[in-house]
Amino acid sequence: MAEIREGKFVRNETNENSMGGTERMTMELAERVDSELLKDFQIVSSRVRELQEDKIRVFWSHDLPGDPESEFLKDKNKQNQFHKFVFVSNWQMQGYMQAYGIPWSKCVVLRNAIDPIELPKEPKSNDTIRFIYTSTPHRGLNLLVPVFEKLAEKYDNIYLDVFSSFEIYGWKQRDEQFQEIFDQIQNHDQMTYHGSQPNDVVRDALTKSHVFAYPSIWPETSCLSLIEAMSAGLVCVHSNYAALPETSANWTQMYQLHEDPTRHAGLFYGMLESVIQNYEKTGVFTNLDAMKTYTDIYYGWDMRVMEWEGLLTSLQKQVTDRSIPSEEFVYTS
């Protein structure tokens, strides 16, 4: 969907109006990694268009292996045009390897990154337990809203803020199929629908929230929304689908996904209610400081830039002879 070319972030026709996770990651990488180092590389994020033969070519995938834009990898000649494949999780990487026969030696996992969320000095208000959802609507909002409605019938001290729209990708028209859910939120006294907002607005809302509620039904290759919620010190309740267990690293309240939506909703309801009841009993949410510390270090941009520069420098050193075909490249840390 984007790429780094001549050391600069470049868009193409698929992401002209998008500011999703792929664009954010690619833009940040272009700004943070040494610009002189980047000039020797073409880093393509998920969508391949024109390749530069005089550059070291890196394919940085943010998508699922079944995405139509990834099917070019079935052709070994096209696959070998890239010197390295970078993935955002081991779950995703191994899916690509299985689907396209990409060798281990040409792959590496460099996870997504964030700027750690700075928490306000004043403690947040605990009079109301604030829940928050910050992903696009197709990833589980249709489960969250009815579950929260049932919880609100029993608990008058809970509130849900929803930041969710395809507008973040420039696809506002895709919101139409979810309008009924948006209306449910807007017509409920204990919910607010915020649509799509700039990332700094979402990050600020996270600092005022207590629980990240994410009944994910979408196979995430990673999850920036979850990472930001962990950095904000929220209790994170989510399914164990796809790369979410790997992303959360066992710091969260995770439950077993169920393929039946009704059963899934019941499991999610139980997890959220246990969080509410535990808080009402103890008055605290536990183990969140340690989770935040882990997240800020492990997913912070400082560590990720160091890893990227290590990878690129290693590849650069191997190009003493530009005639070396890409299939012979091996990353050594």
Would you kindly provide a written description of the structure presented here, covering whatever features stand out?
The chain has 333 residues and is α/β, with parallel strands linked by helices. It is 38% helix and 15% strand. It is built from 12 helices and 12 strands. It has helices at 21-32, 35-38, 76-79, 90-100, 141-154, 179-186, 199-207, 224-231, 244-248, 261-282, 288-298, 301-318, and strands spanning 2-5, 8-11, 41-45, 56-60, 84-87, 107-109, 129-133, 158-162, 191-193, 211-214, 235-239, 253-255. The protein has a 6-stranded mixed beta sheet with strand order 2-1-3-4-5-6. The chain has a 6-stranded parallel beta sheet with strand order 9-8-7-10-11-12, sandwiched between helices. Helix 9 (244-248) links the parallel strand 11 and strand 12 (253-255). Helix 5 (141-154) packs across helix 10 (261-282) and helix 8 (224-231) packs across helix 11. The longest helix is centred in the last third of the chain and has 22 residues, at 261-282. The radius of gyration is 21 Å and the shape is globular. The relative contact order is 0.13. The mean pLDDT is 91.
